[in-house]
Amino acid sequence: MNPVYDCHIHMMPGRCDAPETFLAKITAAGMTGGSIFSLPPKNTLFYKTGTTMPEHRERIANVLDFCRKLPDTFHPFFWLNPTEPDALEQIRYAKEHGILGFKVLCSTYAPLEGLAAYRECARLGLPVHFHSGILYDGEVSGGFNRPLDFECLLEVSGLRFALAHISWPWTDECLALFGKFRSAAGMRSGPAPEMYIDTCPGAPEFARVDAFRKIGLLPYDAGSRLLFGIDSSVNDYSTDGARRIHEFDRNAFNKFHAMYSDPVRVHEEVPFTRHGLDALDFNSIFENAVSVNYLRFIGKKDGRKQ
Ligand SMILES: [Zn+2]
To answer: Which one, out of 90, 102, 178, 203, has a CA that is 20 to 30 A from the CA of 196?
Structure first.
């Protein structure tokens, strides 16, 4: 089976499948690995009133324990609130115990407020996977999740980070920000931060297809930093949904591959954006998004644990 990594899998409060059941469901969907985000930090959005909200040690132990019972192609991420007073200690504790990356959702704070935490993640060589885009939480939170709010990560040398959902409805802003990070790499001292884009739904189909096309046409080589994701959960992984999303995305890239393998067509559409005659390989963009880009994001050169 070719490797297909789902970069966006949740573990949420409430009933949860056993690891073996989850593995059977995700394997049936054609996925071979991915990132599993721990239970969320304390936030009434995720925990019903009256339920206990577990401390970071317990949440770290949960996700590590779950992943230990899975093949090593599954990677435990810790869902961090970078504004908690002991965030830096949580990060170090997570790393020491085997966490391989962090998930952050800026529901009540701006990305800028977590810079010290992201610097620590970068220092430890661990990636940060952010929610980005509109958040249907009943709260005033959109201003914390626009792509441009993440421009402050330019200050975090060496950080690998991803923005999820192509930041819908701000997908163009997300791609423009990507271009900025790409170009800034040659303008700033120290190891440049690396931005990745997680294309998982949340963004409606037509917006995603539109973004896929632009990702290929823009001259930023975004195809080398694209991640494929489903945004389902280990609680009850959606085999059918994941299979359909995988097929949908592959078909969309395939359609663009046929369309833009003709360099004349590319030249007609973007004569000033791209110089010269280029045939565009959209199929490779998708193949990389489901495999090698993901491994680079989590800091693995190949499929083996470091
Ligand atoms: Zn999610």
So the answer is: 90
- State the Cα–Cα distance between residues 76 and 161, nearest whole angstrom: 16
Which residue carries 């577990």 as its tokens? 54
Domains parsed from the chain with CATH numbers: 5-297 (3.20.20.140)
> Partners of 227 in the beta sheet?
198
How far does residue 286's CA lie from ligand 1's centre (Å)?
20
Cis ω before 82 (30° cut-off from 0)? no
* Residue reference for tokens 């833009």: 260
- Model confidence over 183-241: pLDDT tens digits? 998 888 888 999 999 999 998 999 999 999 999 999 898 889 999 999 999 999 999 99
Dist CA 274 CA 282 (whole Å): 15
Distance, in Å, from the CA atom of 279 to the CA atom of 301, rounded to the nearest integer, reads 28
Q: Name the pLDDT band for 302 (thresholds 50, 70, 90).
A: low
Determine the distance separating the centroid of ligand 1 and the alpha carbon of 10, expressed in angstroms.
6
18 alpha-carbon distance from chain centroid: 24
Express each pLDDT in 68-95 by its tens digit. Answer: 999 999 999 999 999 999 999 999 999 9
d(CA 261, CA 162): 28
For residue 290, report the distance from its CA to the centre of ligand 1, in Å. 17
Residue whose tokens read 């009850």: 236
Q: How far is the CA of 72 from the centre of ligand 1 (A)?
A: 22
In sequence order, which ranges of 160-301 are alpha helices (DSSP H)?
171-184, 205-217, 239-260, 263-269, 282-290, 292-297
Least confident of 9-23, 243-257, 289-303: 289-303
C-alpha of residue 131 to centroid of ligand 1, in Å: 7
